[in-house]
């Protein structure tokens, strides 16, 4: 494999890894925010429970 082909392959793989990292980061942040919001709603509704 020539050096130019290797360089192009590494460039494509690197760009794909950066894009995938951004997608995973965004999904993690949104999941974390949803968990915090739902947890706060549960704590707020705790006073309405009667056993």
Record keyword descriptors for this entry.
51 residues; rod-shaped
Task: Report on this structure.
The protein is mainly α and 51 residues long. It has a domain at 17-46. The protein is 84% helix and 0% strand. It contains 1 helix and no strands. It has one helix spanning 3-45. The chain is rod-shaped, with a radius of gyration of 22 Å.
Q: Roughly what percent helix?
A: over 70%
What is the 3D form? rod-shaped
Give the rounded overall mean pLDDT.
92
Distance between the termini: 71 Å
Strand content: under 5%
Poorly predicted sequence stretches spanning 5 or more consecutive residues: none
Determine the oligomeric state from the structure: single chain
Number of helices: 1
The count of DSSP E runs of length 2 or more, i.e. the number of strands, is 0
- Describe the largest sheet: none
**Helix/strand/pairing category:** mainly alpha
- What integer value in Å does the Rg equal? 22 Å
- The helix/strand order is H
């Amino acid at each position: 494999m020539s050096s130019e082909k290797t360089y192009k392959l590494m460039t494509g793989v690197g760009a794909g890894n950066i894009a995938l990292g951004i997608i995973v980061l965004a999904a993690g942040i949104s999941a974390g925010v949803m968990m915090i919001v739902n947890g706060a709603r549960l704590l707020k509704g705790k006073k309405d429970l009667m056993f």
